[in-house]
Amino acid sequence: MNDDKKTPFRRIMKISLLAFSVIAALLFVLRSVYAISLFEGLTKEMQASGWVSAGGDLLMQPNEELTYEASYLFVKFGTVKLQIVGKTNYDNTPAYRVRAYIDSYSGIPFVNLHAVYEAVADAKTFFCLLSTNSQKEGDSWVFTSYRFDFAKKMIFIEQWKEGKLLKQFSIPLGKGYTDGLSFFYYLRAAVQNANGKETNLSVPIIVADSTRSSVVLTINEEREPCKVTAYNFPIDSYRMSGYINFKGFFGVTGDFVGWISTDSAAVPLKADVKVILGSIVVKLKEVKRNNWIPPRSKS
User: Fold this and answer.
1) How many CB atoms lie within 10 A of CB 88?
2) What pLDDT digit, counting tens, does each position of 239-248 carry?
3) Dihedral angle over CA of 125, 123, 99, 245, nearest 10
4) What are the sequence ranges of the domains in the chain?
């Protein structure tokens, strides 16, 4: 095969494989929540029912670790590992620290991706208070931080490489936002609080290039079995679908579908997200969560 024929294939593979970094950060890509118009009402219901103080602890179990595997055209090319580090306080606000590790498999052509994302999310609203990410570029690491200052109504952004400040700027903060990582847990809370009822949602989100936008979706569309790598039986799940309202890196945008467990843990199981050519499928590969037995589907 000559170089001219190889070039389109290489471009396709590079676009498709690298796209999963964005998808993972969103999660999964999959990844949305509270309708802005419904958010205050939903939060009040959560507080009134005791969900925030009691159920929140059940959902946000310290040391939980969920590992997902991404594939394109049946080629498995990387994993995303998400962790609940534990409870904390940030500016006197009760919060959760969460973390994600994104790694491509060795030997995958045209991509060598390694990144670590961290977020501090408000324990009541799951809006982001602090977001950081470190991504490997060649032999160096680039570190970016987003600090959400609600008092000053600004988001302060800094980017560093090898101890040198590359960028420093701020953008207005008119309302709360999730980032790619807190989005994942915000979605779980929304699904749990909806209690199986079909609900239309929209969530404000800020993505890696400082774009402020939203993702809309419908959760709990129907109840159906979902098969994942982590278990040898179908899991009872709620299906969701939605639309990403912005164009992310390498063309990540538009429609997506996902499945999440029907129990109180509300564990995301699988997602199918569109990219420029085809779609990427993300499946739950491994679970570390105390005493969790996924609900077996009866279908």
Assistant:
1) 14
2) 999 988 876 5
3) 0
4) 3-288
The tokens describing 50, both together, are 């005791």
User: For position 24, what pLDDT does the model report?
Assistant: 42
Long-range contacts of 21-24 (CB under 8 A, 24+ apart): 21/102, 21/113, 21/115, 21/249, 22/180, 22/207, 22/208, 22/248, 22/249, 22/250, 22/252, 23/70, 23/252, 23/271, 23/273, 23/280, 23/282, 24/68, 24/70, 24/80, 24/100, 24/102, 24/180, 24/282
Distance CA 116, CA 181 (A): 11
Other Cβ atoms closer than 10 A to 162: 10
pTM: 0.79
DSSP of 118-185: EEEEETTT--EEEEEEEEEETTEEEEEEEEEETTTTEEEEEEEETTEEEEEEEEE--S--B-HHHHHH
For residue 101, give both structure tokens.
Answer: 């590790």
Q: How confident is the model at residue 257 (pLDDT cuts 50, 70, 90)?
A: very high
- In this predicted model, what pLDDT tens digit does every residue of 4-19 receive, in sequence order? 544 544 444 444 444 4
The pLDDT value recorded for residue 245 is: 81
User: Any alpha helices (H) in the chain, and if so which ranges?
Assistant: 3-26, 36-48, 56-59, 180-194
Helix (H, G, I), strand (E, B) or coil at 86: strand
Residue pair 142/132 in contact (Cβ under 8 Å)? The answer is: no
d(CA 37, CA 221): 20
Structure tokens at 213: 């936008």
